[in-house]
Write a structure and sequence with these properties.
- With 272 residues, the protein is an all-beta fold.
- The protein has one domain: Jelly Rolls, CATH 2.60.120.10.
- Helices cover 0% and strands 50% of the residues.
- The strands form six sheets. The protein has a seven-stranded antiparallel β-sheet, with no helix packed on it. The protein has a seven-stranded antiparallel β-sheet with strand order 2-3-4-11-6-9-12, with no helix packed on it. A four-stranded antiparallel β-sheet has the order 5-10-7-8, with no helix packed on it.
- A hairpin with a 6-residue loop joins strand 13 and strand 14.
- The mean pLDDT is 95.
Length: 272
C-alpha cells in the first residue's frame, strides 16, 4: 500500500471514534496535521493547541465549541455530507484551549491543523460565508465550497475547501501542482484529501506524480481514506454511479494558491 494513502483506523472510546489521525510524525508532511472524529451527543472533547492553528469543519451533525474568548452553539448545517450544501466551520488560533461536544445524537468533525507563530482570533465561519463555485466542463465538473480560501484573513496558513465530483468525472484536473516556492507563478502548498463516497461501498482513483516520475503512485481510495500530497500532480477520478467528496487542507510557507498544470494535459482547457 502506498505511504501516501491513510486508511481509516478507528480508535474508539465510550463516546467517540477517531477515524483518521495524521500528524507530522506519521506522514511525510511538514505543514499539515489532520484528524476526523465521530462524536456522541454530550460527550465533551478538550484540546490545547501547541504551536498550531486549527479549522474545525462540521462534516455532519451539530456541535458547540467553546474557547476562552468565544462560545458558539449548535453549529453545523447537514446530517449527511452528500446533502451538498455548505456547512459551518470554526477557526481556533495558536496555543488556544478549547472544548467541543455534539448537540445532535452524533456528529462528525474534521480537525485541520497547521503550524503557525501568529496569534489571531477565534472565528465562526458560517455556511453562508462559503463561496460556491461550479468548475470544469465536459467530464471535468465539480462543485466547490470555499471555507478558507487564500484571500481570507481568518487564518495564517490554512486553506480549506470542500469538493464534490459526480460519477464519470475527474477532479483536480487537468493535473496541477503547487510544490515550488516560486511566486507569483507557483506556491509551495502541501495538501491532504479526505475522501467520502456515495454510496459508501464505492471507490475512486487518485494519482500523485512528479514530472520526473520520481514519485508516481496511483491509489484505489475508499470512503474515509486520506491521501497526503507532499508534492506533485494529484488528479482524482470517480467511477460512474458514485459521487465523490473530498475535504482539502492546504498549507505552506505562504498562504497563496498558485498552481501550474501538467503541460501534457493542458490542451483540454482549450476545447470548444
Amino acid at each position: 500500500m502506498s505511504y501516501l494513502l491513510h486508511k481509516t483506523k478507528v480508535l474508539k472510546t465510550d463516546t467517540t471514534m477517531t477515524l483518521q489521525s495524521i500528524t507530522r510524525s506519521n506522514c511525510t508532511l511538514d505543514y499539515i496535521e489532520f484528524k476526523v472524529m465521530h462524536l456522541i451527543q454530550d460527550d465533551i472533547q478538550k484540546e490545547t493547541l501547541d504551536g498550531l492553528e486549527l479549522c474545525l469543519v462540521v462534516l455532519e451533525g451539530k456541535v458547540t465549541v467553546q474557547t476562552s474568548d468565544l462560545i458558539v452553539e449548535n453549529i453545523g448545517t447537514r446530517q449527511s455530507i452528500f446533502e451538498k450544501k455548505p456547512t459551518d466551520s470554526f477557526y481556533i488560533p495558536l496555543d488556544s484551549t478549547f472544548s467541543l461536544h455534539a448537540t445532535t445524537p452524533t456528529a462528525k468533525v474534521a480537525f485541520c491543523y497547521s503550524p503557525t507563530t501568529k496569534k489571531l482570533s477565534p472565528k465562526l465561519i458560517k455556511a453562508s460565508q462559503n463561496s460556491i463555485e461550479h468548475r470544469g466542463h465536459y467530464n471535468n465538473k465539480r462543485l466547490v465550497h470555499n471555507i478558507l480560501p487564500d484571500t481570507s484573513s481568518i487564518s495564517d496558513s490554512l486553506l480549506v475547501v470542500e469538493v464534490y465530483t459526480n460519477g464519470g468525472n475527474f477532479s483536480s484536473y487537468p493535473p496541477h501542482k503547487h510544490d515550488q516556492d516560486n511566486l507569483p507563478v507557483e506556491s509551495l502548498l502541501e495538501e491532504t484529501y479526505y475522501h467520502e463516497i456515495n454510496p459508501p461501498q464505492g471507490f475512486v482513483f487518485q494519482r500523485i506524480y512528479t514530472d520526473d516520475r520520481e514519485l508516481d503512485e496511483t491509489m484505489s481510495v475508499e470512503s474515509g481514506d486520506v491521501v497526503v500530497v507532499p508534492k506533485g500532480y494529484h488528479p482524482v477520478g470517480v467511477p460512474d454511479g458514485y459521487e465523490g467528496y473530498y475535504l482539502n487542507v492546504m498549507a505552506g510557507p505562504t498562504k497563496k494558491w498558485a498552481f501550474v498544470n501538467d503541460t501534457d494535459h493542458e490542451w483540454i482547457l482549450d476545447r470548444k
